[in-house]
Amino acid sequence: MSDCIFCQIALGKVPSEIAYEDDELIAFKDIQPLAPVHLVIIPKKHLRSLNDVTPENERLIGHLFGIIRRLAGEFGVAESGYRVVANTGTDGGQVVGHLHFHLLGGQALNARIG
Ligand code: AMP
Ligand code: ZN
Question: Quick count: other Cβ atoms within 10 Å of Cβ 73?
Answer without folding.
Answer: 10
